[in-house]
Write a sequence for this structure.
């Protein structure tokens, strides 16, 4: 009788030993990746907050909500790498080889770590369907509140400001609250505009910032000014004087698209189940995809961790990181494709998981020499 036939994997010293290693490495990897990602997020949020004039009171909540968004992805990667490192350590110390000789293989290792995997599956499912949407909703509310509060300080006096990703540089020597029909009134205006390969400098005595009610685009209405096309010395330079000129600084359609995406990401998961809108269907499938990936990656992690004592030290980890990046990028591409209507909800993001599952099965059969066995039978 084989040792494995009387073995109960989930109640053994070996199972506890492997689970302890996975948990320790999971915590270590999560801390390392978390410090890098959250540190970067901290810098970006502070930079964005200073640029938009967000109050200090709202700064910490914004940082917290931004970090919550990344926790599921970091946990998935941390568990994946922890499993690879734990299994790899067993093989490098020849402990796994002894276990193999007793009839314990990849299936048993997968069973050993099952409690950790299922626990994280439930936790990440809770995060992606409840906590993360709530955090995005709260973040959107804070941003809206600050945007409304700073409406009259949108253009600042005596400061050079960039719009349209640097294509417009604006300066006003004096800024005041606008009268009826105008958000802000300005005096002594300087504007540098980059239109394709052409540079345009505009000078005006006065300007009013206003928002178009229909398109929600933001314009500057310039009064009594001059536009210089090209620089002095250019053969094709032009000088145009105007009495009134409207310059768009923010495209309302682009802004509205961003707002709609934020609202979709903050929607209740139950509401997404009831919706037929492609963007909301894509958001629902994305939320479910992250916990599903935990199950697939944990199985793949066991297979990648299997190595000979003389094998590459971190080859499994390197391959694992590459696969993880490709897997998540494929999910993002599938989500974008579904949102645009170039795919159907039945296909959606599910095809990515199907391909991943097929890859794991092929890898498993290859590891265990099943292909050679079936090929030999076919030849006979």
């Amino acid at each position: 009788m084989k040792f494995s036939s009387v073995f109960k994997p989930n109640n053994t010293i070996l199972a506890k030993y492997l689970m302890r290693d996975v948990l320790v490495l999971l915590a270590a990897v999560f801390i390392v990746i978390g410090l890098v990602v959250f540190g970067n997020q901290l810098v970006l949020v502070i930079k964005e907050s200073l640029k938009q004039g967000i109050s200090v009171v709202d700064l910490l909540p914004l940082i917290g909500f931004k970090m919550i968004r990344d926790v599921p992805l970091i946990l998935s990667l941390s568990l994946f790498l922890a499993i690879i490192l734990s299994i790899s350590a067993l093989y490098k110390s020849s402990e796994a080889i002894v276990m193999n000789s007793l009839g314990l293989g990849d299936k048993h290792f997968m069973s050993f770590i099952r409690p950790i995997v299922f626990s994280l599956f439930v936790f990440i499912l809770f995060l992606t369907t409840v906590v993360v949407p709530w955090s995005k909703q709260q973040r959107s509310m804070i941003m809206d509140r600050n945007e409304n509060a700073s409406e009259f300080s949108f253009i600042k006096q005596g400061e050079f400001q960039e719009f349209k990703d640097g294509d417009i540089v604006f300066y006003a020597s004096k800024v005041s609250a606008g009268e009826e029909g105008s958000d802000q009134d300005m005096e002594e205006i300087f504007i540098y505009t980059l239109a394709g390969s052409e540079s345009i400098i505009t000078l005006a005595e006065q300007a009013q910032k206003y928002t178009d009610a229909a398109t929600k685009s933001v314009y500057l209405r310039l009064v009594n000014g001059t536009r210089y096309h090209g620089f002095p010395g250019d053969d094709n330079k032009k000088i145009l004087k105007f009495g009134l000129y409207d310059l768009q600084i923010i495209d309302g359609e682009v802004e509205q698209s961003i707002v709609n995406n934020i609202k979709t990401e903050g929607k209740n998961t139950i509401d997404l189940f009831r919706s037929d809108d492609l963007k909301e269907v894509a958001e629902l499938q994305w939320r479910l995809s992250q916990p599903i990936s935990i199950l697939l990656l944990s199985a793949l992690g066991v297979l990648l961790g299997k190595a000979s004592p003389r094998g590459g030290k971190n080859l499994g980890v390197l391959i694992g990181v590459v696969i993880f990046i490709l897997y998540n990028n494929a999910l993002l591409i599938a989500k974008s494709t579904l949102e645009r209507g170039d795919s159907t909800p039945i296909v959606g993001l599910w095809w990515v998981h199907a391909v991943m599952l097929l890859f794991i099965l092929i890898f498993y059969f290859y590891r265990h020499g099943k292909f050679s066995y079936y090929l030999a039978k076919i030849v006979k």
